[in-house]
């Protein structure tokens, strides 16, 4: 199967080719024909599945015909980073067409956004707050919207955007195509989908579970030793790009400083940073200036960086959903990755929830020759499920070719010790 079968306009095909896409991902194969036929869509898919192209490509096909320089497509996303990512993809795919896009989000000056809208665009990728602001000012005309996309609807709900979303949708033409994407379907989201979708076709990609290409491991560790363990792991593990998650902005900041002092090429990404600094951090991480990004959940939402070899949960996430989203950053587009989760004795309930919901066992590991002091990692988080026996095989090679920098640790690298349950 390839992209030829969709009969896209030659100018869009050129964009697909330039992006290096040859084979559609499962969500693209399923969703593109549905969107091309004009149906509403309920897409149950997590990040990393290729959902951006699944909605953008058929949208561009529609926009090739019809009036130019009026807003015909509105894409609403929870974060600026995700908005930027969709905008970039839109630029890449539409480069041979006359279609124009712009972003609308807060934290940056309004003026360039108003100027872009004034010049005329067909696609607006927006976060709810600034969009409402511009709607209030009369700087954006949404009366000609033909397609509305809500991306990561569950995240928007988590971030408290549902009332804003409802206000925005009230002002859109009712005759339109609506594409609704969410990784999970809690009740509020189900209700919203029911009210705004018209006879939708549902496309579900996999269960709501992390990509299969990721191997998961749990490192029991006391709080006081986490930083040392992180340093030891970074030294001994063959890593490519590493994404470290912390629960708080402050910890992201201080941990990044600590790692930088030790010579790592590292940057933080957290909500207290100005938008321009955040973008610099993401760009630097994407283009290889930094090997390690230390981020909070919200800040890392939607960053589109391929070739992340390791996601390290310095703090265990608060919800299973957050775990899935974090882990979705690695193993993207068929690459393999490893997810390491540091867990303290207090985290036992969360560990159990993750394992139960994802129907997977996080393999317990201890780092050999690491001084755990009085703490015995092997007595923590004993798994009762028989599934836990499945993953007792040899350490998985982390990455093949494509490393941006040589392995740290080289011959010092040691296998992890697996627990015997
Ligand atoms: P998304 O889920 O849209 O964020 O996409 C995840 C990653 O997969 C992005 O880096 C995309 O550029 C990449 N990707 C999406 N579709 C394809 C495809 N058909 N072939 C290769 N890479 C893809």
Explain how this protein is built.
The structure is a single chain. The protein is of the alpha/beta class and 421 residues long. It has two domains: 3-204, P-loop containing nucleotide triphosphate hydrolases (Rossmann fold); 214-418, Rossmann fold (3-Layer(aba) Sandwich), CATH 3.40.50.300. Helices cover 36% and strands 16% of the residues. It has helices spanning 10-18, 26-36, 51-64, 80-93, 111-119, 128-137, 153-158, 162-170, 187-196, 226-236, 249-261, 275-286, 297-300, 320-327, 348-358, and strands at 41-44, 73-76, 101-104, 123-126, 147-150, 177-182, 201-204, 214-220, 241-245, 266-269, 292-295, 308-313, 337-343, 363-366, 417-418. Strands 10-11-9-12-13-8-14-15 form an eight-stranded mixed sheet, sandwiched between helices. Strands 3-4-2-5-6-1-7 form a seven-stranded parallel sheet, sandwiched between helices. α3 packs across α4 and α6 (128-137) packs parallel to α8 (162-170). The model is unreliable at 207-211 and 385-415 (pLDDT under 50). Bound molecules: adenosine monophosphate. Residues 21, 23-25, 28, 47-53, 304, 306, 332-333 line the site of adenosine monophosphate (AMP). Adenosine monophosphate is lined by residues 21, 23-25, 28, 47-53, 304, 306, 332-333.
Set out the fold topology.
Blueprint: H1 10-18, H2 26-36, E1 41-44, H3 51-64, E2 73-76, H4 80-93, E3 101-104, H5 111-119, E4 123-126, H6 128-137, E5 147-150, H7 153-158, H8 162-170, E6 177-182, H9 187-196, E7 201-204, E8 214-220, H10 226-236, E9 241-245, H11 249-261, E10 266-269, H12 275-286, E11 292-295, H13 297-300, E12 308-313, H14 320-327, E13 337-343, H15 348-358, E14 363-366, E15 417-418
Parallel strand pairs: 1-6, 1-7, 2-4, 2-5, 3-4, 5-6, 8-13, 8-14, 9-11, 9-12, 10-11, 12-13
Antiparallel strand pairs: 14-15
Helix pairs in contact: 2-3, 3-4, 6-8
Bound molecules: adenosine monophosphate (AMP).
